[in-house]
Design goal:
The protein has 2 helices and 2 strands. It is α+β, with helices and mostly antiparallel strands. β1 and β2 form a beta hairpin. The longest helix has 8 residues.
Length: 58
């Protein structure tokens, strides 16, 4: 797999993964004060991770 993936934790047992998203645009959107105000009662914080393929050790 190559490219970028967006990953989010929905709860202690569930994660959200989106492949091929624009991570820079998503970070800007999630960091906007108006978005924070609208989601404050539901969301404590957002963490955006970039997953990349690695080669297993030999």
């Amino acid at each position: 797999m190559t490219g970028e993936a967006l990953v989010g934790q929905a709860d202690e047992n569930t994660a959200v993964v989106a492949y091929g998203g624009d991570l820079e645009a998503m970070a800007k959107f999630l960091g906007a004060p108006e978005f924070a105000e609208r989601t404050a009662q539901f969301v404590g914080h957002h963490t955006i991770c970039n997953l990349s393929e690695v080669t297993p050790p030999q």
